[in-house]
């Protein structure tokens, strides 16, 4: 799904769907860009995306001057995934089985993913009780870094957020103690993608509008009870979210 964020950035209206391409690969996105005119590609200033390296590769090859941005949702989601993996590993190492009702770490699995400031006092007390246990130190450290990533995005001034995020990425990348496998992996990934992550603080561009359109198209599929013909689905999606409805109604 390829979305034009220009109307939203310019304050002229919501983002609009440009096209839909089958497949999730560098070739799928790259081939779509390749058949656009050079003039079109030269006008692309920013490309927002998730952490998939294939899209980054295609953007670098076809619109090399455009600034790539990895938006906050996917950065936080990446960190949350590593935190969850750490919790699962420690759960198995300490209790010898997957999480079950009544297990300490299993009981706080959702609370851990909540922003620190939004946790209720009762849940915060339970969270602190579990994470301060000596056998859960790896989870506690990983959770703290996860919360730091969220806090960087919560800074009032983008400049402060960017500085805080860079220091955090550098701290994780420079080396973590043994036993923090998931955090070490996260550090390498964030360092590799640091330019795209930090670009958010300069541009403010995100995949939020893309996710919004994706939700609207999911609703469209539900109303239609599914589509058998891909071309029909793409056409209907463009009418629904591509800014064409007004033009068609005017005919």
Tell me what the structure shows.
- By secondary structure, the chain is mainly alpha-helical.
- The chain has 2 domains: about 1-70 and about 205-250, no CATH class; about 70-205.
- The chain has helices at about 5-10, 25-35, 40-45, 55-60, 70-95, 105, 110, 120-130, 135-155, 160-175, 180-190, 195-205, 210-225, 230-240, 245-250, and strands at about 1-5, 15-20, 45-50, 65-70.
- Strands 1-2 form a two-stranded antiparallel sheet.
- Helix 4 links the parallel strand 3 and strand 4.
- Helix 5 (about 70-95) runs antiparallel to helix 11, helix 9 packs antiparallel against helix 10 (about 160-175) and helix 10 runs antiparallel to helix 12 (about 195-205).
- The longest helix has 24 residues, at about 70-95.
- About 25% of the residues are buried.
- The mean pLDDT is about 90.
- This is Transposase for insertion sequence element.
- It comes from Corynebacterium terpenotabidum Y-11.
Please outline the major beta sheet.
2 strands, antiparallel
Count of individual domains: 2
Give the strand order of the largest sheet, numbering strands 1, 2, ... along the chain: 1-2
Low-confidence stretches: none
> So what's the overall shape?
globular
Q: How confident overall, as mean pLDDT?
A: 89
**How large, in whole angstroms, is the Cα Rg?**
21 Å
Helical proportion, percent range? 55-70%
